[in-house]
Design a protein that fits this description.
mainly alpha; single chain; binds zinc ion; two-stranded antiparallel sheet
Length: about 110
């Protein structure tokens, strides 16, 4: 059974043909929309790259069960979910909530 514990193992996985193909399948299944935005009633789709500009929205195909801990689910379509960058960060715990207003109403 393959393991995806180290950065090198993960990189290799994310460059594999099997993953690239499955990722496409997941995007197609999810209609190229962030599934969390969809739950919130919004639509976030991959933006079209404009010449000379950076792509604004890049969708990620996320493993619901991370491959480090669930290598068996690395190539299972049901374990994949299309997320926008924002929601991907939320899921990874890099953002906990949307930014609050600057003022502090405890101190008045
Ligand atoms: Zn989203």
């Amino acid at each position: 059974m393959a393991e995806y514990k180290t950065e090198a193992q993960k990189k290799k996985f994310y460059r594999s043909k099997a993953w690239i193909q499955l990722r496409e399948d997941a995007l197609e299944r999810d209609n190229y929309e962030c599934q969390w935005c969809k739950k919130e009633g919004g639509v976030t789709v991959d933006s079209v790259k404009q010449p000379g500009k950076r792509k604004e929205i890049v969708l990620n195909v996320d493993h619901k069960y991370p491959i480090e801990n669930y290598p068996r689910l690395a190539l299972v379509l049901d374990n994949l979910e299309t997320l926008c960058v924002y929601h991907h960060n939320v899921k990874e715990g890099r953002i906990f909530k949307r930014k609050k207003p600057k003022w502090d109403d405890e101190r008045w």
